[in-house]
Amino acid sequence: MSSARFPAPRTLGDPFSLGIASGEPTPDGVVLWTRLAPDPLAPDGYGGMPINPVTVDYEVAEDERFAKVVARGSAVATRALGHSVHPEIAGLAPDRWYYYRFRAGSTISPVGRTRTAPAAGSPTARMRFAFASCQSWSSGYYTAYEHLSAEDLDLVVHLGDYIYESSWVLARRGASLPPQLEDEAVNLTGYRLRYAQAKAEIPLQAAHARFPWLVTFDDHEVDNNWAADRPGLGVDVYRLPPLFRRRKAAAFQAMYEHQPMRLAQLPVGPSVHLHRRYGFGDLAEFTMIDTRQYRTPQACGDGSAVLDCADRYAADRTILGAAQRDWLVDGLAGSPARWQVLGNQVAMAQSDYDPGPALLLGTDAWDGYIADRNTVLGTAADRAAGNLVVITGDRHENYVADLRRDYTVSESPVVATEFTGTSISTGGDGADVTDGGRALLAANPDIKFHNRQRGYARVELDHRQWRTDFRVVPYVTRPGAPITTRASFVVQDGVPGAVEA
Ligand SMILES: [Fe+2]
């Protein structure tokens, strides 16, 4: 083994302009992340880094002042991965806070804080986490993350649309869009620039530095409403499957380069392994699922709401793919944890947009994949203590829904609960009560709450109760919004379905 060190250039500037992060906590460790980028929006996507590798040192300590360092090492940042590093730290004690920092050349990064999970199966009285999604940079400021950083949390879960491949309308007052971010991202340079644009935001950096994160993607990390090898309705030439696979490979690589993900999540060409489980003592198990890579293309069109789409019920349609579905069902059935948390992307609850007797349903969500929904919810129903709680992004709306075992059967029992968290910024300022929200509530008795403001969901759980607080900000097109709790709902142990607190 060579012990060569690769020195940082003396005129590097601030290599930590994209921040630092940690994630994927286990009882004995976490993965740390940073990407050296002194000029984050450099049009070539290399962040202002030279072609050479650079050695990045890291330290993990029990205290903020690094008096008691418990792990240190170095990683080599190379151009092949955009000068990102992902050191995996093992040998830490369970269920406690640690502090970490990096050094490149003579520059020391800010200090991050992270936390290991309780030992597998160990008695764990309580945990708190937040979940977030959908942060179109051009749609608004990341004010919600300023407030999230001030919360008392053990974990942050991100459910996708961390970037958007397109800028759409620039709704941020006072902001401007550099020319290299005007076009839709279709290659590695384009996706790197989208991540750099998001990661350069100070509120997002602060939230990463404060807590470990567990991250997945949805569609906009690649292309609107993509499904396996089928692109959405974006740039035409990418509708050729081989070109779309190249596009996915670029998008997945850029995601890995910018997230605190373990080596197991390093993409191999147009494939990345994102369905994974993280335990939290005897209290909770987080199962992150992937509803994009293995799905059958949307039924009856591109995923928009359609009437009378019989294809939704086809037994061979899948949103998970057979291998992931079996893995999920086995895991749910075999887990001894009190709460099964499903980190999901698109809505699982039936959401009828027709005010009358007809069903007007979006087929990009689980409404387009009835067979898989019935399998998952059937598993929840069959468990003795079936505390399945699904957390969902995608909608840019807050809502609460009871999940029924089979929506085609009248009086089918409630077997699980879904909390959908709104966007951080996508959709702009939003509104509390909307006509669309009223209509959705009227047409769907199992949907109990609807709100279209921006924010995140905060969750506190113990062995008796799960509580979700919907934290919202009144505007995002200018900075500085305050935060309030718009509504709170609870689920009791052994009683699926939510009740307003
Ligand atoms: Fe979104």
Automatic annotation (TrEMBL):
<dbReference type="Pfam" id="PF16655">
    <property type="entry name" value="PhoD_N"/>
</dbReference>
<dbReference type="InterPro" id="IPR018946">
    <property type="entry name" value="PhoD-like_MPP"/>
</dbReference>
<protein>
    <submittedName>
        <fullName>Alkaline phosphatase D</fullName>
    </submittedName>
</protein>
<feature type="domain" description="Phospholipase D N-terminal">
    <location>
        <begin position="18"/>
        <end position="116"/>
    </location>
</feature>
<dbReference type="InterPro" id="IPR052900">
    <property type="entry name" value="Phospholipid_Metab_Enz"/>
</dbReference>
<dbReference type="InterPro" id="IPR038607">
    <property type="entry name" value="PhoD-like_sf"/>
</dbReference>
<feature type="domain" description="PhoD-like phosphatase metallophosphatase">
    <location>
        <begin position="129"/>
        <end position="470"/>
    </location>
</feature>
<dbReference type="Pfam" id="PF09423">
    <property type="entry name" value="PhoD"/>
</dbReference>
<dbReference type="InterPro" id="IPR029052">
    <property type="entry name" value="Metallo-depent_PP-like"/>
</dbReference>
<dbReference type="InterPro" id="IPR032093">
    <property type="entry name" value="PhoD_N"/>
</dbReference>
